[in-house]
């Protein structure tokens, strides 16, 4: 197939890493690995663009630029990644009508409460238009799929389990020994965490975790906390760690994703609250590297872990329950090992994108071929 690809929320190659960017890049790379030709039709970022009328001429200009690319490329199908009220697909519906192309969306989101919001109303209706226009919509979250069922017939919907490419994330004993020396971890159990230090729920989660773990430190529970990530809130997080967990926290800075398996290999458990986390790629990655997970029982996290088998999920912001779960794993090495082995199997059985995306590819091919027969 020849595929026009567009990511309105965060274009491919965007400098700020995120789960959305990882998923979009993974989709593109999977399709290319299967022999399909993939063209990035546009790099227009539509986030809140509908609220910026002074930029509308740029949208029109980009529409015509994308039209020229599409006409020259002669695609079989158009694929948009992530359309929702904040970043609706402003290009795909019109261009697919213009060139008579089948139109698919991966991770379309339908949030009805936004139609009553002054800020979100315009984006809601623009996104609703895109969703209704789509020949097929794929969702990697069960809740999003359920919401889409209120608008879209189920024959035009598919649930594709979220995942990673497990071959990128595996336990490496040599890396473990090397990196633990760098961290000066000694024989203490190591708690790992990772997030971008942005002024949002990511940093809020890190700050809450640090304050909560101070309760275990005061009890004399041995552990070292190692945090990967960087961002504008770095100094704030570091100051908080020095105040609440003096001498116990090591900050690695930003680690390239291709090297994250080394980071995970050095730890004993992975802990990150994940406040309203939509999915949480780090939870998938950590499990793939044989780490049990501790997080909040909220958002999409329950969809990517197995409660009491690969993870201990606690009520959001319940410090006692959270610390009890952390202490349980810190003090029981045999339990950590069992859960770590179960985590590896869980990822390979349920969240291997090389397997999960085969169904996604099959449906894309079906729509492209069906369209060609009827064109």
What keywords describe this structure?
375 residues, alpha/beta, Rossmann fold, 2 domains, 6-stranded parallel β-sheet
Structure write-up:
The model has no long low-confidence stretch (mean pLDDT 95). α7 (201-218) packs parallel to α8 (234-244) and α7 crosses α11 (319-331). α3 links the parallel β3 and β4. It is elongated and about 70 Å long. The strands form 2 sheets. The protein has a 6-stranded parallel β-sheet, sandwiched between helices. The chain has a 6-stranded parallel β-sheet with strand order 9-8-7-10-11-12, sandwiched between helices. It is built from 13 helices and 12 strands. It has 2 domains: 2-163 and 352-374, Glycogen Phosphorylase B (Rossmann fold, 3-Layer(aba) Sandwich), CATH 3.40.50.2000; 166-350, Rossmann fold (3-Layer(aba) Sandwich), CATH 3.40.50. By secondary structure, it is α/β, with parallel strands linked by helices.
What is the rounded distance between the termini?
A: 16 Å
Give the count of structural domains: 2
CATH class of the largest domain: Alpha Beta
Inertia-based shape = elongated
Element pattern in H and E: EHEHEHEHEHEHEHEHEHEHEEHHH
Q: Would you identify the CATH H-level superfamily of the largest domain?
A: Glycogen Phosphorylase B
Average of the residue pLDDT scores: 95
Percent of residues in helical segments? 40-55%
How many beta-strand segments?
Answer: 12
Oligomer: single chain
The CATH level-2 architecture of the largest domain is identified as 3-Layer(aba) Sandwich
Rg over C-alpha atoms, rounded to the nearest angstrom: 22 Å
Number of helices: 13
Q: Strand percentage, roughly?
A: 15-25%
Structural class: alpha/beta
Biggest pleated sheet: 6 strands, parallel
């Amino acid at each position: 197939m020849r595929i026009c690809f567009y990511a309105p929320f965060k274009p491919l190659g965007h400098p700020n890493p995120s789960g959305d960017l990882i998923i979009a890049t993974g989709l593109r790379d999977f399709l290319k690995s299967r022999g399909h030709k993939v063209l990035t039709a546009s790099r227009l970022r539509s986030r809140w663009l509908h609220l910026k009328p002074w930029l509308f001429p740029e949208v029109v200009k980009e529409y015509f630029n994308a039209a020229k690319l599409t006409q020259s490329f002669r695609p079989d199908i158009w694929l948009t990644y992530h359309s929702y009220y904040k970043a609706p697909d402003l290009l795909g519906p019109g261009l697919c009508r213009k060139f008579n192309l089948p139109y698919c969306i991966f991770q379309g989101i339908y949030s009805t409460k936004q139609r009553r919001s002054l800020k979100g109303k315009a984006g809601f209706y623009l996104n609703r238009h895109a969703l209704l226009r789509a020949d097929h919509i794929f969702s990697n979250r069960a809740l999003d799929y359920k919401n889409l069922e209120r608008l879209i017939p189920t024959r035009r919907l598919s649930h594709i389990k979220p995942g990673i490419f497990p071959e990128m994330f595996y336990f490496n004993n040599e890396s473990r020994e090397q990196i633990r020396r760098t961290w000066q971890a000694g024989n203490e159990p190591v708690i790992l965490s990772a997030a971008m230090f942005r002024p949002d729920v990511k940093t809020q989660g890190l700050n809450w975790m640090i304050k909560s773990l101070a309760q275990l430190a005061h009890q004399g529970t041995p552990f070292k906390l190692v945090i990967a990530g960087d961002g504008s809130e770095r100094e704030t997080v570091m100051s908080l760690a020095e105040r609440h967990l003096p001498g116990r926290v090591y900050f690695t800075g930003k680690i390239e994703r291709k090297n994250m398996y080394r980071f995970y290999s050095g730890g004993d458990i992975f802990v990150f609250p994940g406040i309203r986390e939509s999915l949480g790629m780090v939870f998938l990655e950590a499990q793939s590297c044989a780490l049990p997970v501790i997080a909040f029982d909220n958002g999409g996290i329950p969809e990517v872990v197995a409660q009491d088998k690969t993870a201990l999920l606690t009520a959001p912001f319940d410090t006692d329950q959270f610390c009890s779960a952390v202490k349980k794993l810190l003090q029981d090495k045999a339990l950590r090992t069992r859960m770590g082995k179960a985590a590896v199997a869980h990822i390979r059985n349920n969240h291997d994108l090389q397997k999960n995306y085969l169904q996604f590819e099959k449906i894309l091919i079906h729509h492209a071929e069906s369209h060609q027969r009827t064109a």
